[in-house]
TrEMBL record:
Sites of 4-aspartylphosphate modification: 52
Response regulatory domain mapped to chain residues: 2-119
GO BP annotations listed: phosphorelay signal transduction system
Keywords: Phosphoprotein
Entries under InterPro entries matching the protein: Bact_response_regulator (IPR050595), CheY-like_superfamily (IPR011006), Sig_transdc_resp-reg_receiver (IPR001789)
Family matches, as Pfam families: Response_reg (PF00072)
Name of this chain's protein: Response regulator
Highest taxon in the source lineage: Bacteria
Organism: Prosthecochloris marina
Length: 119
């Protein structure tokens, strides 16, 4: 199974890539929405996207909407540690935009893997 992880925090990208690869997933990473859509256009076999909500250049909510309109079969997990609003508020917006699941940062390995297995 191929997963695309989108987060502007390089430490978060490395952490998620390590967990996912260790558990047998094929992982692509992007630090912004523009790179993510380039990767999606070249990798039609991506089945899950994990995206942060608060990012410069392109917000996660916009990314979720675009993915759902162009690739409705892709499952999306939105992650957020909050910002101007609480992380719960951002994650509710993510559900409204089309996310299939959400995780509040910080989350652990088991929580992430359980979320992916229940998609």
């Amino acid at each position: 199974m191929k997963i695309l992880v989108i987060d502007d925090d390089i430490a978060v990208l490395k952490y998620l890539r390590a967990i996912l690869k260790h558990n047998g997933f094929n992982v692509l990473t992007a630090d912004n929405g523009h790179k993510a859509f380039e990767l999606l256009s070249k990798n039609q076999d991506v089945t899950i996207v994990i995206t942060d909500i608060i990012m410069p250049e392109q917000e996660g909510i916009e990314i979720i909407r675009k993915i759902k309109s162009k690739h409705p079969h892709i499952k999306i997990v939105a992650i957020s540690g909050g910002g101007k609003m609480s992380s719960e508020s951002y994650l509710q917006l993510a559900y409204a935009a089309g996310a299939n699941a959400t995780l509040k940062k910080p989350f652990g390995d088991r929580e992430l893997l359980n979320t992916l297995h229940h998609l």
